[in-house]
Amino acid sequence: MRFFFYPTSVAVFGSFKKGAIAYEILKNIVDGGFEGQIIPVNPKGGEIEVAGISFKVAKKLEKNVDVAIIAIPARFVPSLIEEIGDKIKGAVVISAGFSEIGNFALEKELVEKARKKGVKIIGPNCAGIFGVHANFFGSFEVRVKKGGLALISQSGAFGGAALAMGDEEGIGFSAFVSYGNAADLTESDFLEYFADDKNTKVIALYIEGVKDGKKFIKALRYATSKKPVIILKAGKSKSGSKAAQSHTGSLAGSYEIYKAAFQQFGAIEVEEMEELFDAAKVFEMYEKGGKKVAIITNSGGPGVLATDKVERLGLKIAKLTDNTINELREFLPPQCSLKNPIDLIADADYERYKRTIEVVCKDENVDALLVICVPPIFISSEEIAKAIIDAKCNKPIIVNFMAGELVREGIKVLEECGIKNFPTPERAAKALHWLNLRKDFNE
Amino acid sequence: MRFFFYPTSVAVFGSFKKGAIAYEILKNIVDGGFEGQIIPVNPKGGEIEVAGISFKVAKKLEKNVDVAIIAIPARFVPSLIEEIGDKIKGAVVISAGFSEIGNFALEKELVEKARKKGVKIIGPNCAGIFGVHANFFGSFEVRVKKGGLALISQSGAFGGAALAMGDEEGIGFSAFVSYGNAADLTESDFLEYFADDKNTKVIALYIEGVKDGKKFIKALRYATSKKPVIILKAGKSKSGSKAAQSHTGSLAGSYEIYKAAFQQFGAIEVEEMEELFDAAKVFEMYEKGGKKVAIITNSGGPGVLATDKVERLGLKIAKLTDNTINELREFLPPQCSLKNPIDLIADADYERYKRTIEVVCKDENVDALLVICVPPIFISSEEIAKAIIDAKCNKPIIVNFMAGELVREGIKVLEECGIKNFPTPERAAKALHWLNLRKDFNE
C-alpha cells in the first residue's frame, strides 16, 4: 500500500475548471511540491495552468502511474477503472453517489472491476489522501506540516477539520486518509500499514463503525503492538449510533464491545476531538510515560489546577527525595515552595527553570515533568522556552505555557524544537495520562 | 463598593520607572482610556510621560480620590493607609509581603488602620482590578473587551492568564478582581456586589478556599438567585489541597462540602479552565436553556460527535414533530437527513441554514439549537454566519464553526453580532449542558 502515500506518479481525473474538485486536488498536489509525475486526465483534453505551471490535459491515461485520483460522476467510475486498471496500482475515488445513497450495485461493480485488475481502491465518497513526507497532497483539504501523526478518518469533513485544527495546534502529520465508504480498503488495512510506516509515530483513527469486526481486532492488536493508536469512536450513544447509521451507513454496533477491544489492546480512546489533538501531540514527542509526576510552575494557582487533574486521572504527585529538595534549596529563593508542585514564583528566570528541571529529572521518584509558565514578569517567555529546551532531561516534559498572545513567542521557540504546548494545566495533565496508559500496555 | 469598579478618580502609589509595577498600572489606566482624574504619587515627585501624556508626580496625595492603588514595599503600606485614609474610599494593595509569607501582624495592622478610617481594602498581594465599563484598568494585566463577565480570582496569575485567554476566546468582561490575601474584602463581598452590577451578566469565580464558610454560602445563595455563577474550585484533590495551602494559605477544606453548596444553589461548577471560558461565553449570550436539543450540521461526522456528547451529558436529542419534518422536506434536497441531527450536507448555503433554523426553532419539542458548520465548499463561512444571524429564532443557538483559519471570517462576523463560537462539537454540547443546569435551578 506504500505507493499510495509515497507515489512516484499520479493521474487526476475530473474537471479542471477552477473550483472543480479535480482542479483543487491538482492544485494542492502542485502547490504542495510533489516531485513525481503529475498527469491531469479529461476526455476533452486541452491545457491548464496551475500555480504558474502549464499542464497538457491527457485525453486518456497512456502511461503507467502509481495512483489515480478520480473525481468524475459516479456512474462512470467502474468503467474508468476497467479501462485504466492495467496502468495503475491504486485509485482514490473521491466521487460520491455509491452505497451512501443506496447505489449498492454500482459500488459492488466498482470493487469487482478493481479486484479483477488487482487495483486497490480508497473510497469511494472520500476526501482523498496525503502522503506528507512525499509532499503528496492528494486531497482538496488544507495542507499540513510534516510530522509523526497518521490520521485515518471515516468522515471526510471530520478529517478535513482535524487537519486544519491539528495543524494550528502544532501537530505534524505523516499521512492522512479519508476512506469514505470503505468499499475495498478499510480502516483495518490502514491501521496495519501505518503500524509499519517509518515516518508514522502515532496513529489516530476516527470511526463511526467497522465493517469487519474480526479484521479490525486483528489490525488493532498489530498496530498497538507497534505504536500508539488513538481512537475517537463516534456513534457511542443511542442517538449518536442512529445518526452514524444515516451518515456513513455504519452499523455502529455495541459501543461496549468496541470499548473492551480498545482497552484490551491498550489503544488510547479519547472522548473529544480536542483530546485527539492533545494525545497526538504527546505521542509525537514521547512513546510512554509513568505515573509519578513532578510539577514545576512560576505561579501557584495553575500548579494547583494541574495537581488536581493529575490526581483525578489516577496519576501521582511524585514525592521528591530529600536529596532533590536539598539540591533545590541550594539555589532557589527561600519563598519558593519546594514541595511538589514546585513553585519557582513569578520572577523565575532561565537559570531557575533549567536547574530545577535538571535536578528534578534526576529524582528516581519522578517519571515525568509538567512544566507550567504564566507570562513571566521581567523577561520574555522565550527565555523560559530556551531553559526547557536546554535542560538536560531524559524523561518526558509536558509544557503548559498559558495566556495566548502573551506567551506566543515562547511557544514558537518550543515548537521549533519539537516541543508542543498544551494551553491549559488540565490539558497538560491529560497528556501525561495518555502517555501513562500507553506504558501500562507495554509493561 | 461601586467606586472600585466605576471610579471617578484614582491615585497610584509606587515607582514610576519604566517596568516598575506602579508604572505599568498607570500606563494601563491611561492606555485604557480612563476619563477620570489620575494622580501618580511618589515622595520623590518629578514628572513622567505615559502614552504621550505628561503627569506631575505628587509628593503626597492632596486631593480626595475614590481609589488608591498601592504598589510600595509592604512595610510602608499600613502607615500610608493611615496617612491617606481620610482622602480615599478604598485601596487596592498590590504589594506582596504580608500573611502569604508569614507576616500576619503586618496584615492585621493594615486592616485595623483601614477599618479605623472606613477604607475598604482589596488585597494585599493581588494583581489589581478592572472596571471595564468605566474604562478603568487598575492592574498590570492585559486589557480586555467590554462585555458581561465579572471574573473574581483568588490567584492573580490565574486571573491574568484567564483574562488574556478569555479575551482570545471572544469573551467580553464587565470586571476583574484579583483579591489576593483577602485581608478585608473577600470573594463573598465581590459575589454579592456583582450580583447587583447591571453590566455583569455572569460571574466566574476561581477559588482555592474561603475564609468564612457561612458568609460564602450566604453570598453564593444571593448571587445565584440573581445571575449565573461559574466556579472553578482548585485544591480539590489531596495533593491539590496541600498545594493550595502553601500557595494562598487557604485551608481548602473538604471539597465535598463545597460541592454540595455549589449544587444546592445551582452554581455552575466547572472542572477545567477551558470550561470556565465556555460556560462564561454561553451565559454572556443566554440566561438559560432546556434539555431538548436540535442539531443542524453540514457534515455528518461532527453531527454524530455532538449527538454523543449531548446524550452523555444527560440532554436529549429532540424528536422533531411531523410538521417540522414536512416543512423541511419542502425545501431541503432529498439527500439531506431530516432526522435530528439534521444534515444539510456539504453544499448547504445561506438559505438552507436560515430556513432550517427558523423551521426547527418553531418546533415545540425543541428547547435549543446546536448549529455546526465545517468549511463550506462553494461559499464562504461568512454566508453561513449571516444565515445564523438573520434567522428569526427566540431559542438559544449554540454555534460550532470548526477548522480554525478556514472559518475565521465567519467566526468574526458572528462575534461582531455577539454570537460566540465553540471550536468543537463537544465544547458546543457542553455549553448547552451548562445552560440547562441553570434552568434546573430556576424551575
Automatic annotation (TrEMBL), chains A, B:
The keyword Nucleotide-binding is assigned to this record: yes
Protein's UniProt keywords contain Iron-sulfur: no
GO molecular function (one): ATP binding
SMART domains in the record: CoA_binding (SM00881)
Enzyme Commission designation: 6.2.1.13
Gene3D superfamilies documented for this protein: NAD(P)-binding Rossmann-like Domain (3.40.50.720), Succinyl-CoA synthetase domains (3.40.50.261)
Reactions listed under catalytic activity: acetate + ATP + CoA = acetyl-CoA + ADP + phosphate
Keywords: ATP-binding, Ligase, Nucleotide-binding
SUPFAM superfamilies from the UniProt entry: NAD(P)-binding Rossmann-fold domains (SSF51735), Succinyl-CoA synthetase domains (SSF52210)
Pfam families, alphabetized: CoA_binding_2, Ligase_CoA_2, Succ_CoA_lig
Domain (CoA-binding) ranges: 4-98
Enzyme class: ligase
Protein name according to UniProt: acetate--CoA ligase (ADP-forming)
Organism, as annotated: Thermococcus argininiproducens
